[in-house]
């Protein structure tokens, strides 16, 4: 994290709702907040992972490695909710009640809520364009007017919007927003769109359960530039001491190759940076 | 496996009914409840409060006049009742002296309207994820009563019927799956013998958006479903060429009103999601396509028996600010332009009051209230709005729009008094620095947002945020305007006694003179006055009831403008006021 640079986060798992980003200083309201105390210092590190996140098993293993590096007992809390959506109040509840740190968050340079703090990046991944037509090698090969299925509201989606809208309408692709990566991918398979813009780790995981996704290939995003997205974890803003120690542990695990090994083991699209 | 606490409910009701002399009055109160007939719904007794806004016209007006301008200064607390902690966007129903109240997280209670004694309660066994999520969807702005049943929409997206005398579940249906993001935050309307319920939460990965359902009151069976987002071929293509799978929003999160003469239900529809039009795909406009996103921000005129859409009127095309036109539809018969017109009047978040002819759908007039910079002009013939292009949010920029997203008026309802032919409006003056933000959905797309709304005072503000306006509907003139620092956070309640009740973030509950706006009485409660006040009569005595409590996102958003006003996190309660017996 660069000095003086304000980091905001984008949730890999969570999409913050309107209320979440409505006002950066607002701490979410919990009607029963008075029931939750902060955990006393002990010999364990409680951390949250969520199976709705395609990389949750990676997160769990990284959490365990961080705990061990800090000579603490790892205490993973696996979120059980099957709800398709969640919000900042739920995240706040997890951090008060179930864990000190929640893995699986994208770290971006916009508007972090005051009540959260973020770790240093653990690894970096990114967004990809997928096509079914094997003759297409890069985004530029797709003719204007063709459909681009894009998962709504990602950083890559915003880049696509800005790039596309900067061209005359006759030279624009037709962008169709979809609610999930899977829905965007299925729009390609159904012929609704020529390409889908999705989160690479999600595609990796979806491929395992969807044989028809094997027909898709990743293309070069040119002329669009899609920078890598750092992924880390969040803590309550007051947990600065813990964050410093976790950041140190992450640095050590990146340096000794532990994180790379975990990514490789799970076939996750991602790289570490010292 | 989920189960409902039928046994608990039964036990509580039985205990309260059979535990000796202390409960004899309660027993009598319950036994004296008469079935609510269609005639009663059409012409409610003055002492009852049977609909969300008391009558099918949506006026929110009580004809009771025991409490009046002269004696309201003597108003005191008759009784109070603690509610489940959390948001209290609730409206009691009162029938034959029994007050029914919905608590946060779907606890429903029947109380003696005169004493506050508990008669029965129903506690829903909600999934833990629903309980943990809490928030606005754990509260319900209204319930309905019909025949011998209380009709309740629940936080796990069921509709249930409770026996009005015992609280036991009569039937339970699930129109949609809460885990898919569907939500109920308002309750139903019963019109022409059909339960009509709107769905919200439709930004949460529900391609194709929201809907309204009609249900059989005897069984809960779904009779019809009307989608609030136009399908392909419906009213042309108004979604900029987007496939149905890429259309989101149009939540129906406020109950409708009903005109029995034409057998028409009027209901509002919210905005398209996500709010930023560049993200939703509604901008840039595609050549040869419309992008007004029907039926968002519209009034729908619906046949309650069939769900047929008779006509619609859209107030705001392609809403990219979260400035819904979803709120109460008020039915008034008043002259306009020299001719008697049957009007349906509504006020969206922009704070612009608009009237249309409720038989033809013809637009009639508009009246602005709070400062706004989104609409540059309104065509006086058609109501078509010219939008200030500078107020449209753009990715990579911060733009200013007034009012901010919670609205120049929020869900706290306006009300109409036939006594003064005046519409009373709880309003707020503020703006927003709006910055579109990326929010990666990963596996879970949650919603309507995707922008940071930094709420700020109106340029040149004198510091007053809260406001109650009184607008004469006969000529749209402003009768009075009460302005104050604390945001007004409750609906307003005009009465036959010439007073208008309403409350604020600073815990005050006021009685205004309905003709001058003078504050005739005020009292301080224990929390934010953030609900729909009602008035009712039991045993010849008039009461005024209002729920207070923290947790509503609307009030909490307004609170960011007045950080010096502190309110407790807990302490939701129902306050009931009356005149001293000697008065």
TrEMBL record, chain A:
Q: Which residues form a coiled coil?
A: none
Keywords attached to this entry: Signal
**What start and end residues bound the annotated signal peptide?**
1-22
Which domain of life does this protein belong to? Bacteria
Q: Give the residue spans that cross the bilayer.
A: none
Q: Which segments constitute the Solute-binding protein family 3/N-terminal domain? A: 44-270
Secreted among keywords: no
Q: Which InterPro entries match?
A: Solute-binding_3/MltF_N
Respond yes or no to whether keyword Thylakoid is given for this record: no
Q: What is this protein called?
A: Solute-binding protein family 3/N-terminal domain-containing protein
- Species of origin reads Nitratireductor aestuarii
């Amino acid at each position: 994290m660069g000095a003086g640079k304000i980091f905001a986060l984008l949730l890999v798992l969570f999409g913050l709702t309107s209320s979440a980003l409505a006002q950066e200083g607002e701490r979410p309201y919990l009607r029963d907040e008075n029931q939750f105390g902060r955990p006393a210092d002990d010999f364990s590190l409680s951390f949250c992972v969520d199976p709705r996140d395609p990389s949750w098993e990676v997160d769990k293993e990284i959490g365990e490695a961080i705990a061990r590096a800090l000579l603490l007992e790892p205490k993973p809390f696996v979120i059980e909710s099957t709800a398709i959506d969640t919000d900042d109040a739920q995240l706040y509840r997890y951090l008060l009640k179930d864990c000190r740190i929640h893995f699986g968050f994208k770290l971006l340079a916009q508007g972090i809520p005051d009540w959260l703090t973020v770790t240093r990046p653990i690894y970096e991944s990114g967004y990809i364009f997928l096509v079914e037509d094997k003759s297409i090698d890069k985004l530029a090969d797709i003719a204007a007017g063709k459909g681009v299925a894009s998962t709504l509201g990602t950083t890559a989606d915003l880049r696509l919007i800005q790039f596309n809208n900067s061209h005359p309408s006759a030279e624009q692709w037709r962008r169709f927003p979809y609610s999930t990566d899977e829905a965007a991918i299925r729009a390609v398979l159904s012929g609704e769109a020529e390409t889908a813009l999705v989160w690479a780790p999600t595609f990796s995981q979806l491929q395992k359960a969807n044989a028809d996704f094997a027909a898709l290939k990743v293309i070069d995003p040119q002329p669009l530039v899609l920078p890598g997205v750092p992924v880390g974890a969040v803590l309550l803003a007051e947990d600065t001491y813990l964050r410093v120690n976790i950041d140190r542990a992450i640095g050590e695990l990146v340096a000794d190759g532990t994180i790379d090994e975990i990514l490789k083991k799970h076939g996750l699209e991602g790289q570490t940076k010292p | 496996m989920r189960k409902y606490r039928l046994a608990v409910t039964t036990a509580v009701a039985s205990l309260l009914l059979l535990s000796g002399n202390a409960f004899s009055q309660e027993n009598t109160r319950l036994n004296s409840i008469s079935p609510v007939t269609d005639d009663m719904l059409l012409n409610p007794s003055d002492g009852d409060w049977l609909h969300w806004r008391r009558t099918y016209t949506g006026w929110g007006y009580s004809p009771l006049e025991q409490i009046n301008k002269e004696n309201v200064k003597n108003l005191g607390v008759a009784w109070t009742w603690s509610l489940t902690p959390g948001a209290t966007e609730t409206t009691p129903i009162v029938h034959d002296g029994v007050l029914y109240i919905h608590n946060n997280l779907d606890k429903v209670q029947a109380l003696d309207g005169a004493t506050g004694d508990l008669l029965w309660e129903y506690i829903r066994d909600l999934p833990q994820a629903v309980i943990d999520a809490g928030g606005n969807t754990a509260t319900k702005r209204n319930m309905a009563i019909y025949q011998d049943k209380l009709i309740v929409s629940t936080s796990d997206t069921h509709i249930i019927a409770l026996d009005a005398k015992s609280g036991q579940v009569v039937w339970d249906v699930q129109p949609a799956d809460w885990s898919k993001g569907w939500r109920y935050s308002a309750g139903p309307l019963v019109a022409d013998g059909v339960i009509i319920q709107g769905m919200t939460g439709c930004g949460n990965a529900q391609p194709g958006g929201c809907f309204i359902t009609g249900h059989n009151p005897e069984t809960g069976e779904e009779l019809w479903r009307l989608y609030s987002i136009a399908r392909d071929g419906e009213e042309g293509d108004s979604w900029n060429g987007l496939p149905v799978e890429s259309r989101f929003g149009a939540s129906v999160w406020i109950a409708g009103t009903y005109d029995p003469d034409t057998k028409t239900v009027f209901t509002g529809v919210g905005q398209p999601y996500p709010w930023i039009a560049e993200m939703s795909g509604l901008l840039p406009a595609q050549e040869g396509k419309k992008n007004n996103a029907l039926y968002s921000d519209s009034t729908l005129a619906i046949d309650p028996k069939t769900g047929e859409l008779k006509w619609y009127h859209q107030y705001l095309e392609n809403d990219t600010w979260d400035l819904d036109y979803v709120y109460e539809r008020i039915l008034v018969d008043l002259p306009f332009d020299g001719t008697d017109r049957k009007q349906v009047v509504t006020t969206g978040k922009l704070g612009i009051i608009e009237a249309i002819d409720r038989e033809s759908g013809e637009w009639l007039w508009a009246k602005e209230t709070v400062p706004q910079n989104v609409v540059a002009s309104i065509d006086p013939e058609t109501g078509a709005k010219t939008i200030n292009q500078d107020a449209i949010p753009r990715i990579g920029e911060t733009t200013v729009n007034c009012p901010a997203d919670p609205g120049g008026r929020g869900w706290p309802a306006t009300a109409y008094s036939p006594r003064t032919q005046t519409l009373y409006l709880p309003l707020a003056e503020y703006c927003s620095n709006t910055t579109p933000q990326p929010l990666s959905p990963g596996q879970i797309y949650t919603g309507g947002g995707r922008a940071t709304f930094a709420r700020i005072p109106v340029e040149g503000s004198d510091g007053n945020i809260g406001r109650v306006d009184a607008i004469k509907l006969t000529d749209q003139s402003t009768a009075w305007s009460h302005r104050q620092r604390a945001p007004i956070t409750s609906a307003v309640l005009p009465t036959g006694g010439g007073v208008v009740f309403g409350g604020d973030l600073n815990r005050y509950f006021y009685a205004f003179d309905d003709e001058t706006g003078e504050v005739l009485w005020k009292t301080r409660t224990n929390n934010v006055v953030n609900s729909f006040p009602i008035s009712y009569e039991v045993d010849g005595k008039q009461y005024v009831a209002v729920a207070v409590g923290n947790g509503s996102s609307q009030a909490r958003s307004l609170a960011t403008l007045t950080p010096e006003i502190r309110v407790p996190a807990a302490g939701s309660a129902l306050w009931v006021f009356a005149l001293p017996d000697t008065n």
